[in-house]
Amino acid sequence: MRKIGIISISLIILLVLIYVLVRPNPEIISVNLISETAEITYTDIDSIRIFDDAIRTAKKVRGAVDVGPPTYRMNVTYADTEVVKYSLYIDFKTEDGFLIKDSDSEKMLKLKDRSSKELTDLLSKVNTE
Q: How many CB atoms sit inside 10 A of residue 48's CB?
């Protein structure tokens, strides 16, 4: 009887691990950015990759979130029609950035240096046009 319990628990753990490792990541189909002066929507593969990398690799920052207005309001639309809203903060001089997911505004997500630089480069093109 004890062997059956151990085998059952092991099988459940194995199935959970397989699901977590194999499940597909939701695919982003567009990113809409809104600032005080402009609105732009990205749908091209290269831009979507930059936003996807930035979102997936952002790390939670400890402490309370106490920031001013965001640089951009960001709406990310996924292939399953889900729309996730973020506040995007980018410092174009230092190339630092972070996200705050609107549904969890108590958590600040720091962008990795590479992602922050790529986003800064991408958004700088819009600001100069």
A: 17
SS (H, E, C) the chain: CHHHHHHHHHHHHHHHHHHHHHCCCCCEEEEEEECCCCEEEECCHHHHHHHHHHHHHCEEECCCCCCCCCCEEEEEEECCCCEEEEEEEEECCCCEEEEEEHHHCCCEEECCHHHHHHHHHHHHHHHHC
Residue 47, Cβ density class (10 Å: 0-12 exposed, 13-18 middle, ≥19 buried): buried
Residues 115, 53: contact at Cβ < 8 Å? yes
Tell me what pLDDT residue 102 has: 85
The mean pLDDT of the chain is 86
- Contact predicate 74/83, CB 8 Å: no
Task: Decide if 54 contacts 115 (C-beta within 8 A).
Answer: yes
- Give, in order, the Cα–Cα distances in Å from 60 to each of 76, 112, 118: 19, 11, 19
30-39 burial, b for 16+ CB within 10 Å, e for fewer? bbbbebeeee
Q: Tell me, what's the pLDDT at 66?
A: 67
Q: Which tokens belong to 19?
A: 């699901």
